[in-house]
TrEMBL record:
It comes from Rhizobium chutanense. The lineage of its organism: Bacteria, Pseudomonadati, Pseudomonadota, Alphaproteobacteria, Hyphomicrobiales. Residues 171-187 have a biased composition (Basic and acidic residues). This is ArgG. Residues 171-195 are annotated as: Disordered.
Length: 195
């Protein structure tokens, strides 16, 4: 005889949260102004206007809030700006992580190229850069981009604090069905067929 299913106790369950990127995470992964300047000078790339990017994005968010102020209530404005700022922070964090991986790959390629016994890491034909040089240049480009996105995120976060009156924090979204993989759901459906 089949045993009836026991009711789940939802109130006693711990809800897992999907953590969003924070400004601190962005600052740990993206170059600051001094490092971005050093990268730009070392590789001969564009020197970005860090303060200009930050100020422009602060004004952008402020002007957006001003334009929406008649149509949105205080809580709706806070929710909207929380999402917008979250997008800037998430984008900068993703760029910072990509930059970190590019630097690791550039360092590895450079270390391998320094080993005279490795034929595959020798410089390319005359007029072409080595693989290690291309990776260093790529990492430099990613560093400048990550820095620019960091400045945009910091401007958006500053505007949020000015408009809402609170420090921006990422929204931590509950994970749907934590621990339930597709296989587990399929197994539960198959077992329920025996009841």
């Amino acid at each position: 005889m089949a045993k009836p299913a026991t009711p789940s106790r939802q109130s006693a369950r711990v809800v897992a949260l999907r953590k969003g990127a924070t400004v601190e995470m962005v600052r740990l992964t993206c170059p600051d102004s001094a490092q971005a300047l050093k990268i730009a000078e070392s590789f001969g790339t564009t020197i970005v206007d860090s303060d200009g990017i930050r100020d422009l994005h602060e004004r952008l968010i402020s002007e957006t809030a001003d334009a929406l102020s008649d149509g949105l209530g205080e809580k709706a404005m806070q929710i909207h700006l929380q999402r917008i700022v979250g997008a800037f922070v998430g984008s900068a964090h993703g760029a910072g992580q990509f930059y970190s991986r590019a630097v690791t790959e550039a360092r590895d390629a450079t270390a391998k190229a320094a080993n005279d016994a490795r034929d595959e890491d020798l410089d390319g034909p005359v007029g072409y850069d080595s693989a290690a040089q291309r990776r260093r240049e790529f990492a430099a480009d990613m560093g400048v981009q990550a820095h620019a996105l960091r400045m945009a995120a910091e401007g958006a976060v500053a505007a949020y604090k000015q408009i809402v009156g609170e420090t921006w924090k990422p929204f931590d979204r509950p994970v749907e069905n934590p621990g339930h993989s597709l296989d587990r759901k399929a197994a539960e459906a198959q077992i329920s067929a025996f009841d």
